[in-house]
Every structure is written in C-alpha cells, then in structure tokens.
Design a protein that fits this description.
By secondary structure, this protein is mainly α. Helices cover 70% and strands 0% of the residues. It has helices spanning 3-26, 34-47, 58-80, 98-110, 117-131, 134-142, 148-174, 181-193, 195-206. Helix 5 (117-131) runs parallel beside helix 8 (181-193). The radius of gyration is 17 Å and the shape is globular. This is ER lumen protein-retaining receptor.
Length: 215
C-alpha cells in the first residue's frame, strides 16, 4: 500500500467520523441526503461480497467492515432515531436516486472484467459510487443553511476520491500490472462531479465567507 492509498482511506474514514459526530453528538442530520447514504449502503454491500471468500489482509477486512457498518448505521439514524429523523430535510432531498441504480447495473452487465456475479456487482458498485453524491449536491444547492460539519464531510468525500486517482496514477508508473479502466473512469467522473463544490468551498474558506452553493 502506498501513501496516496492510505491517505485516501484515512480521508474517507475521517469524513464518516465527522458525519457520525454530527449525528450522534448534535442529534441532527440537517443538510445530509438520506438518498446519498442509501446509495452508499448499496455501493458497499455489493462491493464487499468477497469479505467471506477473499482474505487480503487484516487492514483490508477491517476497513471494509467499517465502511459497510457505518453506512448502514447512518441510514438507520436518519430513518429511525426518534430525534435525528426529525431533523432530516425531506422536502429538499427530492432527487430520484433509485433512477441511478438501473443504468449503473445495466452498464455493469455490459462493461466488466469478467461475467461473474462478484465481478458484475463490483463494477456496479464503482459506477454507482461515481454518481451517489448527486442527491447530496442537489440538497446542498437547495439548502439555505449549510453548517461547517456538512461542508467538511462532503469536501473530505471528494478529497478521498481525488487521492485515489493519484494512487492509481502512482501505481501505473511504479507497479507492473494491468490497468483497470473501470475504477479509473468511474473515479474521474466522481471527482469531476465535485469540481463545482470544491471551487465554492475553497472560495468561501479563503474569503472567510459562509459556504453556499449557487442555485
């Protein structure tokens, strides 16, 4: 494992910790898209089917369990916790997220490494993760009050994917292995979706202004 991969994992983990701290300590999920969180549950559930059959390392297994477990717990809090669920911006979180699932699955059936259940679902998880942030970005555009924790959470999610792209570039030049175009292309698409968010996030931080996305 190289430094870029480790930094990407730690950035991803930090984003989840920030979100869970907001939900557990502030008892609030205001500004967080339940639609995006449900998509992440699908992403990790379909990507980590090899937890039982393919042992890579202790670190790899622990991180997979953490990402899957925390994504499920976040959805549970937003749906069923008697206090947290009352802070959910349901009227603003209106992106039809399930319409993203079918195109991603069809694409996985067409473009994959090999036509097996695990490989097709692995490809599906990458395609779905690339667009899973869309409901969250739409919600932020509609929100009048974006708190710092929510902004930092989304920024770290985008930074995690950017670091993974750097990791793949680094591995391309330092390791002798076949290029896996599926994670490259899906990672580029996902990072591109964050471009507008990054611009306004960094601009507001630089100018010491309250963070907001334009309509």
């Amino acid at each position: 494992m190289n430094a870029f991969r480790l930094a990407g994992d730690m950035t991803h983990l930090l984003s989840i910790i920030i979100l869970l701290l907001k939900i557990r300590n502030m008892k609030s999920c205001a500004g967080i898209s339940l639609k995006t969180q449900e998509l992440y549950v699908m992403v990790f559930a379909t990507r980590y089917l090899d937890l039982i059959t393919n042992y890579v390392s202790f670190y790899n297994t622990v991180m997979k369990l953490v990402f899957l477990g925390t994504s499920i717990s976040i959805v549970w809090y937003m749906r069923y916790h008697k206090v947290v669920k009352q802070t959910y911006n349901k009227d603003e979180d209106t992106f039809r997220h399930l319409f993203l699932v079918l195109p991603c699955f069809v694409l996985a059936l067409m473009i994959h490494r090999s036509f097996t259940v695990t490989e097709v679902l692995w490809s599906f998880s990458l395609y779905l993760e690339a667009v899973a942030i869309l409901p969250q970005l739409v919600l932020l555009q509609r929100s009048r009050n974006i708190d710092n924790l929510t902004g930092n959470y989304v920024f770290l999610l985008g930074a995690y994917r950017a670091l993974y792209l750097v990791n793949w570039v680094y591995r391309f030049f330092t390791e002798k292995h076949q290029v896996r175009w599926i994670p490259w292309i899906s990672g580029l698409v996902q990072t591109a979706l964050y471009a507008d968010f990054f611009y306004y996030y960094i601009k507001s931080w630089k100018n010491h202004e309250k963070f907001r996305l334009p309509e």
